From TrEMBL:
PROSITE patterns: ABC_TRANSPORTER_1, ABC_TRANSPORTER_2. This is ABC transporter ATP-binding protein. It holds the Pfam family ABC_tran. Residues 4-240 form the ABC transporter domain. SUPFAM superfamilies: P-loop containing nucleoside triphosphate hydrolases. The lineage of its organism: Bacteria, Bacillati, Actinomycetota, Actinomycetes, Micrococcales. InterPro entries: AAA+_ATPase, ABC_SmlMolc_Importer, ABC_transporter-like_ATP-bd, ABC_transporter-like_CS, P-loop_NTPase. One of its GO terms (molecular function) is ATP binding. Keywords: ATP-binding, Nucleotide-binding, Transport.
Amino acid sequence: MATITLSQLTHRYGAGQLGLSDIDLEVAEGEFVALIGPSGSGKTTLLRTIAGFLRPSSGVIRIGEREVVSHDGAWVPPERRRLGMVFQDHAVWPHLSVQKNVSYPLRRTGTPRRDLDTRVAEVIEQVGLSDYASRMPNQLSGGQRQRVALARAIVARPQALLLDEALSALDEPLRARLRMEIKRLTREEHLTTVHVTHDRAEAIALADRLVVLNHGEIVQIGTPQQLLREPASSFVATFLADATRFHGVVSGHRFYPQHPHLRPPAGITWVDQHQRGESTHHATLTVSPDDVRLTRLDPTATPPEDHARVVSVLHGQHGVEVSIDWAGTATRVFQRSTDLVEGDAVRVEIGHARLFVGGPARQDATVGAW
Ligand SMILES: Nc1ncnc2c1ncn2[C@@H]1O[C@H](COP(=O)(O)OP(=O)(O)OP(=O)(O)O)[C@@H](O)[C@H]1O
C-alpha cells in the first residue's frame, strides 16, 4: 500500500473549462478518502487524474515512492501505476468465469501458478463468492458481478484502490451490505482507497476523511464527524447536512436577517470568515434540519405573520422529512415522527444555528444537484 500525494494539481480542459484548481491532498497509507461535491465540482477529474486517464495541466502526483506526474513533464501511464479500479458498471469480462476474471491481473504479470491459485481463492472468499468461482458473469446478479470487479481490482495487491461510483448501480439493501463489506475488505487489506460518490450517507459511512470539492477546489477536508460538527463554510453545511441558509448582515456583533420573520436563536455558533479588505457585513445563518422544531397552529384561527406552511411530509425508515415554506424560504426539517400533513400552518423554532460572517462570495452560489 502507498501514500498518494497531490501537489498544486490543476487541470484545464481543451475548451478552457476549469476541471481542477491548485489541489493539495495527501491520502495516507491504508486511509479511505471519499471525494464529494456537487455535480461538476471536479470529483471525476481528480480521480481520473490519479488513475492516469487524464494528464493534468500542471502539478505533481506521487504514488508511494514514485512521481507518476512530475513538474518536468515526466508521466507514468495508467497500466504502470499499479492501481486497482472499480467503476459503476460491473466492468467484468463476459467471456471469462469468475475465477478467470479475478486471476487475470496475476496471469498478466506471470505470477507462478501456485501463488496465483492461493491468492485468487483468498480474494474470491473475501468477497463472498467461493461458491461461484466457476460461474460465468451472465449467471451472476449485479451485486455479485460488482464483487468480481472488486476482487479483480485488489487481487494483485495494488498500491491503491480507486472507486468510481462503484456502488451506485446497485439497489438497497444490497448496496448497504456491499458498502459494509468494502469497508471491512479495505481495512483487512490495509488498502489506500479514494472513492468518488454522489451518496453522502455512503461517503460518511465509509470514509476516514471526506474531501469536499466545489468549482474544482478543495473547500474542506476532515473526518465525517468534523465536517458535520464544524463545517468551514455555509456551503459545506448546506451540502453535507441539508442545512437551510438565511442571509443577512452583521453589525455590532448582532445578526440582522433579511428573512422577515426569522428570530435568530440564542444558540448561535459564530464562524468568522472575514477576509481583510472585503466587505464584512454580509452573513449567512445555516440551520440544520435537526435543529428546527415545528408546532401545528390552530387551523381555525388566523395564523400569525411569522408562520410557515408544510409543503411535504416524507416518512422514511429512520424518521420524517418535513419541508416547509417559511416566507418564501424552503426549509427542511427532520423529525422522529409527526402528525403534520401538507398544508398545515406551523410555528417554527430554531434550537441552534451557525453564522458564517464574510467569507468567499461564491460559496453562497447554488449548491447544485448531487
Ligand atoms: N471532457 C471535458 N471537456 C470539457 N470540460 C469538462 C470535461 N469533463 C469535465 N469537464 C468540466 O470540468 C468540471 C469538473 O467536471 P467533473 O466531471 O470532474 O465533475 P464531477 O464532480 O465528477 O461531476 P459529476 O458529479 O456530475 O460527475 C465541470 O465544470 C465539467 O463541465
